[in-house]
Design brief:
single chain; mainly alpha; Lysozyme; about 65% helix
Length: about 210
């Protein structure tokens, strides 16, 4: 029920923005006798509308990610939700997949090498180009390096996140983790997130507008 409420509210906000901008564009166009100016105004307003819609959905995604993480790991760092959302969009990676993996690896940075007092390695990745790895300077860098690794070595040859949840290997056939039940546990975490939150639906909505 909460998931549906969130989506309804998000759609209402987006619809309201659409109506406001449509009214504004019509009002300006009716007062202008130059057809070329009208077209230009309408194009600008359409771009502004898309950006407002995308920003609204992104804010909703951050809120939902924050709520989910705080329930699972109350002591997780406050910056993690926004970085997860930002980089999932930047690198076009399934946000729920990213969340499921960091939950599995370090419980959102509250255990093991994911802690701020340790290496901030949210995903168990110990790669930081140009340095002898001693840890990431912040969670922003940690998440971005993970996304780069996935795009370079794992999400290749037509593979997607669902493929990795069945067989999490890189382009050379090496497994991401040695645990025999890793993929199964990742699927459980992923399915829990997608079924208990509107995050997956919000990300799909964002992508449909961004196209």
């Amino acid at each position: 029920m909460k998931k549906m409420k969130r989506l309804i509210i998000s759609m209402l906000i987006i619809t309201l923005c659409s109506v406001c901008f449509a009214f504004g564009a019509t009002y300006i166009a009716n007062g202008d006798n130059q057809q070329s100016d009208t077209v230009q105004i309408e194009v600008v307003d359409t771009l502004k509308l898309k950006q407002i819609q995308m920003d609204s959905i992104k804010q909703e995604m951050v809120l939902e990610v924050t709520n989910y993480i705080k329930k699972q790991a109350p002591k997780s760092h406050d910056s993690i939700p926004s970085y997860l959302v930002e980089h999932s969009i930047k690198y076009n990676i399934d946000l729920c997949f990213m969340m499921g993996q960091t939950q599995l690896e370090t419980n959102f940075g509250t255990s093991g090498a994911g802690r701020e007092s340790s290496k901030r390695s949210l995903f168990g990745v110990h790669i930081y180009p140009g340095t002898k790895f001693k840890g990431y300077p912040n969670y922003d860098v940690a998440i971005e390096e993970y996304c780069k690794l996935l795009r370079k070595s794992y999400l290749v040859k037509g593979r997607d996140e669902h493929y990795l949840m069945r067989n999490y290997v890189n382009r050379s056939g090496n497994h991401y983790a040695t645990a025999g039940q890793y993929e199964a546990n990742l699927r459980i975490a992923y399915n829990t997130i997608t079924k208990s939150t509107p995050i997956d639906d919000l990300q799909k909505m964002y992508k449909s507008i961004a196209i």
